[in-house]
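FW: tagging you since you asked about this chain on Friday. Here's the raw sequence from the shared folder, copied in full. Didn't touch anything.
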Amino acid sequence: MTTVEQAPAETVPVAGRGRAADTATGAATPPRRWPGLVAAALGLGGALLAHRFVPAVGVLTWAVALGMVAGNTGLLPRVAKQALAAVTRRLLRIGIVLLGFAVSFGSIMALGVGTVALVAGTLVVTLVVTTWLGNRLQLGAARSLLIGTGFAICGASAIAAMEDTARADEEDVAVGIAMVTLFGTVAMVLLPLLANPLGLSDVQFGIWAGASIHEVGQVVAAAGAGGAAVVAIAVVVKLTRVLLLAPVVATVSVRRRLAGSDQGTAAKRPPIVPLFVLGFVACVALRSTGVMPTGALDAISHVQVAALAAALFGMGAAVQIRSLLRGSGRVLLVSTLSTLLVTGVALAGVLVLG
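HL: got it, structure written out here
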């Protein structure tokens, strides 16, 4: 028995172990990832189906919610849950990279310098102040940063992209996504109702919605009442925030290193600019060349949503709901203040631009 256990470690490289050796050692190998891929596919299917019946809730949000249900009720077998954890991160990175195909440099520059400055200024103020508030209320550095990132940039996608840099865990991610879903939905309903009392034109409302509401789907829903032209403006403004995801992640990573927050963990700390963020920028650049046919972009969009949803299902499955509920009052307070901040700063900018 001893000989069987030692032989793989001494004579066979880990990457090249056969199926029999894997069975003897119990190591996590590619064949063992299939239960995770199956679970992720089922979670994705459930999220897509739920979104079809309740379209007001996004696919990504449904994926997290279903993952939490599966992970906390015993619906997900232990083997599948362990295998799901192995594939979640890779799916997450694929989704973030492909998100770059949703935006081009040309569409951003068409907004004008003033609007781009408004978007960037609102983003920075929201990110910095929300993170500061979260730390003051002792939410934890990682959770505070993820909530700030989600509210300032692009909701669940931004939270997922910042996870490693923030050194967050699945519960931090789940809390952040829950908050952007809840408060983004509130903003989606309230902002259209406030447009007329505030005397905003269609263009001004489109900019306001795009610069302040969290998720792309929520932006589309809020701007939809104004017609296709308003939706187009709001979405381009929103995608400008998405484009700023890469420099924000890189900047936070550099600041953490300069501040010494990664001291003593040099072997484990992430690179200054994660490779998937560089991939995101490369996809933006490729989209900006105009060589990508519309059909290909549509197909990529579906793959991107599928990869992110499957990954977020896996994240949700790793969350323990009891732990998630701890400190929820402080989380709600920070999220409320952050929502007031992002909508207020964006509205002030819109009014100044006229």
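FW: The chain has 18 helices and no strands.
HL: agreed, and The longest helix spans residues 170-195.
FW: great, closing this out.
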